[in-house]
Amino acid sequence: MKARERVRATLAGAAVDRPPLCLWHHFRPQGSPAALADATLAFFGGLDFDLFKIMPDLPYPAPPDGTICAPEGWLALPRLGVEAGEPLGGMAEAVALVRRARPEAVVLATVFSPLALALRFSAGAEGLSRLAGRDASALHHGLGILADNVGAACAACLRAGADGIYFATAGLGDGMLEADAYQAFGRPYDLRALRRCEGGWCNVVHLHGASALHWRWAADYPVPVVSWSDRRTGVPLAEVAHALPGRTVMGGLDETGALVRGDQAALAAEMHDAVRQTGGRRLILAGGCSVPDDTPDAHLRMARALVDEAWAP
Prior knowledge:
The chain is an alpha/beta fold. It contains 13 helices and 8 strands. The chain has a single domain (3-310), classed as TIM Barrel (Alpha-Beta Barrel), CATH 3.20.20. Strands 1-8-7-6-5-4-3-2 form an 8-stranded parallel β-sheet.
């Protein structure tokens, strides 16, 4: 099967010749959409992966001081443009360049959720909690602006040729937030941004965290694919696949384990276990997050070779 055919069949729950595979790490485009597109094409094309994941390496513009400590800063967050040359236009430019070079590829554009950006701008969960206690209305206003800007950027990427948005959340794991805080400051703004992603057939929600992952907080997000670090969090593929029978699960490989060490036997065992847990249906083999940037390409090529052996009808 060709990659696009394989991924579409996987999302439909149909039989495939093997599970699709995607692994990734960050690039250093130094603010250049063209450099990001070139790095994406060289990496994913050279390794023959099934999805081209454009990384969020043209970041959302940080506030002037790096962090926002006062309510006034959240009230002053600007609406940003998403066209070429505008503050959030770089990702769509990179998407268009990748699409032009590889019209047959399955292309995902990676964006961070509004809450992920808010956590960064408030210097973490403690800063966000302090602000919420001091002036929750200002925080809600700022999150609304972030959601609208993120949503507009997602829509621009889809117009530029992306097949889907890889929507990276934060706050569901690692003990960062309690359920009521996520329900107040995460979920409404995630959904507000995701409404702009309806044109993507391969949208992915990534539930970021290395421990204590509360994946059910986002279980009903309107996307066909769910990604998380199943090996690191201890939330198995089978658990989510059983609970969400119409979704495709994306994971199965420890992004800091056998893949990084170059342990072929252990990596093959992870692949076989992922196929066993899912029956080989609605499964995209992937790391639970980015592999370290210095992971040798030889290890990634090893994974590509092994995936052909992981399929067990």
